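Lecture 7, part B: from sequences to assemblies.

Below are the input chains for today's worked example.
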Amino acid sequence: MLRRFFKWSDIYGIVAVYLILCAAALTFFNTWGQKIFFPAFQGENLLYGYAGHMFVVLAFVTAAFSVFLNFIRTYLQPIHDNLRGAAKALTITHFLSVGGIFLTLLAMIINHRFEYQYVWQHSKSDMKINYVLACIWEGQEGSTLLWLFWHSVIALFIFKREKEFQAPVLTIISLAQLFLSMMLLGVWIGKVHIGSDPFGLIRMQENNIGLPWTSHTDYLVNKSLATWNMFHDGRGLNPLLQNYWMTIHPPTLFCGFALTTVPFSYAIAGLWTKRYHDWQKSALPWAFIGVMVLGTGILMGGAWAYESLSFGGFWAWDPVENASFVPWIVLVGAAHVMLLYKQKGQSLFTTFFLCITAFLLIVYSTFLTKSGILSDSSVHAFTDDGLNEELTFFMGFFFWLSVFLLSFNSFLKISWTILCVFVLIFFLAGFHAAAMLIMLCCSLPFITLGYFLFFPRKNKEEELWSREFWMFVGSLGLLAAAVQIIFFTSLPVLDKFLKIGPIHSVTSAMYNAGFHPEGFKNIVDGNVALDKDAIYFYNKWQISFAIVITFLIGCVQYLKYVKTDFKHFSRQLAMPLLISFFFALIVSLFIYYNSSWSELTKHKRQIYILCSILLFTASFAVLANFKYWSTVLKYRMKSAGASIAHIGFGVLLLGIVISTSKKDTISKNTSRMDISGLTQDVDNLENIYLRKGDTLPMGDYYVTYRGHEKKDISGTGYVYFNVDFLKKEGNMYSESFSLAPFIQLNKFMGNAAEPATKHYLHKDIYTYVKFVEDRLLEDSAETNDLQSQMYDTPKEYLLAEHDTIGLENCVVILDSARVDSTSKYNQANENNLVAYFDVFDEKLNRKNLAARLFYDPKTGGSQRQVDAEDDDLGVKLTFADVDSKSRKIKVFASVRLSKKADYMVLQVSIFPGINILWIGCLIMVTGTFIAVRQRKKLNAHKKHE
Amino acid sequence: MKKTHIIGIVLIAIAIGCIFTLLGNSSTYSDFATAAASGDEVHVAGSLDRAKPMEYDAVADPNRFAFWMIDKKGLEKHVVLTKSKPQDFERSQQVVVVGAFKGDEFIASDVLMKCPSKYNNGQDVPNN
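Predicted structure of the full complex, as structure tokens:
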């Protein structure tokens, strides 16, 4: 088998030698700084760097040759495919070199080569072995590498499976690879730095070059230098990412990203070779695999956020989440329109359009998350690290190519290209945003003209009651949902456009001419931001889209291609409609329109109304598809993929609706701050203060905080907060359980709070620590010693007799305050006042304390104080002043740090029915998998015939 | 009706919808001076003033955290967040607060912060 795969041809040999020469040349050229070879400092091992660079350059060169070779093959292939062997060699060499980059990085991390920036920044010597992979893709370069890797694997499959479109498809994939591997190059060409290199030495980083320590050859081994302390161990993985999800989520997501490239490449190949129809057959299974894998990746991200990041849920409409969700929606639309085309030969242009858009959106989303443009609007977008321009070129090139091919006419193509050259010049001149905007706007007339004037369209009308018509409408609904999300996620980009000189002058001229609609001022200034309550805003829109789409999912299977008998159709759907209507009615009456309806905010009510409609349509989709599977398909598994996937989607939406709309934050706090009248929809007072030993009612539960404990697991500190939950029904405690949300300590990157969840079949109880004082996290002997001597900042109180103050660990009552004329304290030139306090500790034991204030009897001015102090309680009371008008005394009270209460601020939420959501995910993925397998089988079957 | 017409109508409807919500519903990036004058809901970006005290007393109210912030134009205001104190707030390089002025205080319902080390490479390499 191996021999068959490695069929050596003459060209292979020539190309291989040529490649190695090129690689060698480029390794020399590809500088670490400036020089080719340089001596290693003590403790450095440069071999890793050489190997890594060689593989990166090799990957880049093979990608470049692959583009070139496959480009030629595309024209030669129909006649004489001489270059197949060479192309195969290139594909395999490319795969091996990408694998080589990966393995080199892995070896560097396993062997703790902290002299390399990437290793130092992302790993640590005492790290758990299962996070090694996570270290590789924590950084930008690593995630680019993942993408590169999946592309190269896909290229192998294409080579093996695809015959007809092999060369053009490989050309496109290799082009993508060329751009991606360029991002790892890290080459200086003149003053331009291309890509960011994961194999750079720490002392050769741009911001370190020229610093004195970079010339100390013993900077790694000499323990007396500050650099030793810095570099003998790495900074380690971000605590938020030390999680098994980090090991599986990014690879799955990037696999989905890479799979989106395949339908795109096929679409481009079809346009390029003018075989507008044939590409779909092979591209369709790829599109559905992409839907499945990308969908799984996104859901994994949601599960990760829910389980171990303290975002307070599984989906927050954060720009980073949206950026991967939008291409998925478009890909789902694309796959369905392709299905439609396969059956009926209609909507051909839409298949091109959607396949291309899905890929461009993937690149755009990487641009959004990596370029730093979102840094004001997202908690977890990367900040700019210099890949901005490479990503823009990547995006711009493929955008040019797509519109070029979609113009269909050589005049249009040439004018589009000329336009793009001007845009490029504009871009290089520094007008980045303007260039992108011009390109985007100008593409529309080209595509429209291309479609209306030169695209071979069918001018046949569909029947209103045909499957193709409504499937098409559904796909448009998906596109519209995608447009809505991406538009609002891109507001920061829009703001940049609006601030461009000419645009700003046009809008401000309009404004000055008296055009003042609401909010227009923001547009003039380029200061548009998303609604304050982003989650509500997205939910409102997206639930509306989901209602339309789920309703169509329920109906469409019953419609026949071409034409349907409406009577038959409505008879079929009557039962599912009726059942789901009553189901939704009962459930919404039960969970939404109950006694608390009148207390809800306006926003909540809107969402609840939309949710109950979605409950109806989603359960309708589930029932109708189930009925289709049982009555029409007779429970046959083989062809049930679509039905099962749709059932899964419906169940998933039901789970989302029930768990999020009824998500109940039970840790409500009695607010002491008046924020009413500020805004009508503030409902965020959802944290509770819990002291060690306290038991507080919370929803149906009584919650006790039992204290915290610190554990050290392989070098990382974890502080667990043990919380007991008790449920009381009547006089019975019906359930009790303990949860231990924790904080992971990390002095470099800040501590990370992670939630703990109690899972039930019908609900989850989800809790995490919102705030805790640093002193509770620092538990060393040194700090304990310090804390036993120091007092916290004194607080001021004005007390009349018998007034009470509550301190953290005791209650203080002022018994009396009077002039003390008897005691030894009395001296000739000063009198003294004494305040007697009763102090009760937590067990209500009483202690008497006295604080004195000395004053000058002649002037009445105070002179000095003797504080009341108690070592057991760790309390200090200072008698500071007397306010004779109000007959009150001023007292400062402080508590010794070590005696201060062990407390924290906690948030507890209940997610009902969240398991419905996860079950829905599983069903949907299974269904898609069955559908893909069936589709592949059918394709194989047809080939044999 | 032709399919292309439907595409057109649907997309135009969505676009109009988007623009209308944008005009009506959106918040705005602003600075303290403008926000104080208008009293509207805004996003203000700026940095934390570390020299002035941050107030968080969980005993008194776990949902009130106050600090001093300097906006990008250099104006400093007292900001009250109606949530618990975010972990590692001291480390933040940049903060974005969402809320409105009430009197001379900016009452924030949410805060976004960028820590140097969490998502990018805060380089704390010694300079000697």
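Note for the exam: Chain B touches chain A through 65 residues (CB under 8 Å). Keep this in mind when comparing with the next example.
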